[in-house]
Amino acid sequence: MKSPTDMLLKEHENILKFIDFLLEKCEVMEKKKEIDRDFFERAIDFIRNYADKFHHAKEEDLLFKELCKDTVEMHCNPVEQMLYEHNLGRDFVKGIEDGLKKSDINKVIKNSKGYADLLKEHIYKEDNILYPMAEQSLSKTIKTKMLKEFERIEKSKNKDKALTFLKSLR
Question: Which residue has the higher pLDDT, 131 or 151?
Answer without folding.
Answer: 131
